[in-house]
Give the backbone structure.
Amino acid sequence: MRRIQCPKVLRKYGFCGLLALIYALGLAMPTSEAAFDALLDDMQKIIGGRPKKKWQRNSTPASHKHRGGITCSETRRVLAHYSARCKYDELSVKASGVTMNFSAWLKTVKANTTYIVHTGKHAVFVDVPRVRARLRVYDQGGARSAGDMARLKRAGGLTLKKVHSVFTVARVAAA
């Protein structure tokens, strides 16, 4: 199943974790900066605690890199909040003492599943259909297929990053 791409106006922001949640939960994709601000406000209410200073609107390009960034524990809180929409399991790879990069983790995926994968400073949504070879990885840069993995193996590429946490997310059918 193909998913809506991240709009070009929002690609400058570092909201990869929130984007993965949008894909996993089937939330509406923000198409403008105003809709993105509303999404950040909604997520801040769910996450709770102090307002995240990194999420404040700022005109400097350097601040765009982290605007909308989310941690593994915040991802867990959002998934728990939307428990009526989805069920999830978390595998904390880093806490279990296993060192695995994204490329090695891809070999362990199961068919007909969706995942949110957190690496050190990035998060992606992985959709694995019935045929595992047709998997797609989504982030702000767009969708990448198995054919794009060679390009992602370059120095600093996604497939070389160490995996910290993996959330297996299953959408609950509406009754």
The CA atoms of residues 56 and 73 lie 20 Å apart. The chain has one domain: 12-171.
